């Protein structure tokens, strides 16, 4: 039995029509939803930055990560974040949209040897100053990123991590509160060296009582993601070192 | 009158037991190994696959008479990918938090062989209603195994269920841990899932010898 669907002409026409139809549906959808998605991403960045400096709605239960609600995040962001700076070589300028800078692009520029911008956010809460720095690196499957909030002694006041596609239950746990909370109080300095903080297996400190060892306890089953986090912090600290030197309390 | 005829009911119940997509057809193993380290991820994956397989089966079934057989696999792939991208984009615009949770599953859904397997084996030859039931049935069968595996892996590997500690605190040595019990770190890595799935297959086949192939 030969059907009309077996002919070559039909096959080619079908393929072309299918691609055009599906392509236009997706293109239409993407452009129609773009403003909404952009806004959600903007809110998310603000929530993440505030989360790192401890402005969040985390309860006493150690389990969940709770952000400032999206409907108030914009006001909170402008009241807590006092300055947004952009570092370009030796020049530091203020830019109220610095938080929208795509760090991935800037890191690509560095690789290509082109000029780049590094954003820093200065937050203030209860009279204390926080220097919040964005981070970007790679985990096991895809990108990981986050924010780290430091004070002027280079002690970590809070972090936020996120990832694109780490394994649920293993690498994805970097965005769990118990992991992020471990970084609080750690220092990125080893003596006078900017060492960063390593996610270490076998540091024999699951409760993370030792705060000056530049190490936090690793996640079981997520070695490569953990190494990615260590490398990301190290790279970021290296990149921001000249700026950190200027704010560090001597 | 019953809502479903007996034949239709079988479409739902068969994949739950004697024609299970994972343990009998051995489809969808990759995602069963990858995401069952915790119960919550298993559940999310099961629900997502149910949605995509149900909707995809209907779409493919409606198109079954116009799809050229030479390029049918590519057409199926496009249908799955389109469905998943549409859902992903809509969630990103209107339920951002949920979309963040599901983001890691998107790639796993598109590459899930159960979906292509059911399109190819069932939806191309049956009407939309029966295809829909087949999709729901198979994703339930898939989900049941995922949840069983997730239950044992999370309980034995982390001592928690849905992230809630049920055996005490492994660091403070309370509850069961006070007696010297330790979490089995092996359970949270993917090979453990293979062993749990193997045990399920073993149990299932020894209860129903008809399932055992003759050599």
Polypeptide structure, described:
The complex is a heterodimer of chains A (250) and B (215). With 250 residues, chain A is of the alpha+beta class. Chain A has one domain. Chain A has five helices and ten strands. In chain A, the strands form three sheets. A six-stranded antiparallel beta sheet of chain A has the order 2-1-3-4-5-6. A two-stranded antiparallel ribbon of chain A has the order 7-8. A two-stranded parallel ribbon of chain A has the order 9-10. In chain A, a hairpin with a 2-residue loop joins strand 3 and strand 4. The longest helix of chain A is centred in the first third of the chain and has 45 residues. By secondary structure, chain B is mostly helical. Chain B has one domain. Chain B has eight helices and two strands. A two-stranded antiparallel ribbon of chain B has the order 1-2. In chain B, helix 1 runs parallel beside helix 7, helix 4 packs across helix 6 and helix 7 crosses helix 8. The longest helix of chain B is centred in the middle third of the chain and has 31 residues. Chain B is globular. The mean pLDDT of chain B is 85. Chain B: It is an enzyme of class 7 (translocase).
Output the number of helix runs of chain B. Answer: 8
| Computed structural class of chain B | mainly alpha
Largest sheet of chain A: 6 strands, antiparallel
Large-scale geometry of chain A: globular
Count of DSSP-assigned helices of chain A: 5
Counted up, domains of chain B total: 1
What's the total count of β strands of chain A? 10
Give the chain pair forming the largest contact, with residue counts.
A-B, 34 and 37 residues
**Oligomeric state of the chains in view:** heterodimer
Strand content of chain B: under 5%
Ranges of chain A where pLDDT stays below 50 over 5 or more residues in a row are none
State the shape of chain B.
globular
């Amino acid at each position: 039995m030969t059907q009309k669907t077996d002919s070559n002409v039909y096959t080619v026409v079908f393929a072309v029509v299918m691609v055009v139809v599906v392509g236009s549906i997706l293109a239409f959808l993407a452009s129609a939803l773009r403003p909404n998605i952009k806004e959600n991403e903007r809110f998310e960045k603000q929530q993440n930055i505030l989360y790192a400096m401890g402005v969040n709605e985390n309860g006493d239960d150690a389990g969940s990560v709770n952000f400032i609600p999206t409907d108030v995040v914009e006001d909170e962001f402008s009241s807590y974040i006092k300055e947004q700076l952009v570092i370009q070589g030796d020049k530091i300028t203020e830019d109220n949209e610095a938080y929208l800078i795509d760090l991935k692009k800037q890191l690509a520029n560095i690789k290509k040897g082109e000029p780049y911008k590094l954003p820093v956010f200065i937050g203030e809460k209860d009279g204390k100053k926080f220097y919040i720095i964005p981070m970007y690196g790679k985990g096991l499957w895809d990108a990981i990123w986050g924010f780290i909030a430091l004070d002027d002694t280079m002690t970590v006041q809070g972090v936020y991590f996120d990832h694109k596609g780490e394994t649920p239950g293993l690498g994805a746990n970097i965005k769990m509160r118990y992991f992020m909370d471990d970084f609080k109080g750690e220092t990125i300095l080893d003596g006078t060296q900017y060492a960063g903080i390593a996610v270490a297996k076998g540091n024999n400190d699951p409760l993370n009582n030792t705060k000056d060892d530049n190490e936090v306890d690793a996640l079981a089953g997520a070695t490569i993601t953990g190494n990615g986090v260590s490398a990301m912090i190290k790279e970021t600290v290296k990149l921001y070192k000249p700026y950190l030197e200027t704010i560090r309390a001597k | 009158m019953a809502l479903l005829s007996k034949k239709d009911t079988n479409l739902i119940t068969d994949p739950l037991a004697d024609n299970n997509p994972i343990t009998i057809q051995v489809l969808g193993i990759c995602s069963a190994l990858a995401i069952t380290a915790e119960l919550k991820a298993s559940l999310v994956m099961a629900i997502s696959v149910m949605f995509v397989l149900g909707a995809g089966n209907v779409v493919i079934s409606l198109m079954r008479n116009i799809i050229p057989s030479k390029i049918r696999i590519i057409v199926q792939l496009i249908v799955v990918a389109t469905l998943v991208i549409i859902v992903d984009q809509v969630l990103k615009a209107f339920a951002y938090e949920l979309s963040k949770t599901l983001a890691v599953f998107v790639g796993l859904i598109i590459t899930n062989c159960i979906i292509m397997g059911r399109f190819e084996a069932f939806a191309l030859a049956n009407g939309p209603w029966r295809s829909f039931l087949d999709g729901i049935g198979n994703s339930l069968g898939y989900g049941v195994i995922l949840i069983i595996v997730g239950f044992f892996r999370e309980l034995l590997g982390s001592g928690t269920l849905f992230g809630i500690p049920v055996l005490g605190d492994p660091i403070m040595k309370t509850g069961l841990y006070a007696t010297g019990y330790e979490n089995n770190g092996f359970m949270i890595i993917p090979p453990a899932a293979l062993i749990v799935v193997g045990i399920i297959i073993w149990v299932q086949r020894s209860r129903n010898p008809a399932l055992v192939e003759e050599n």
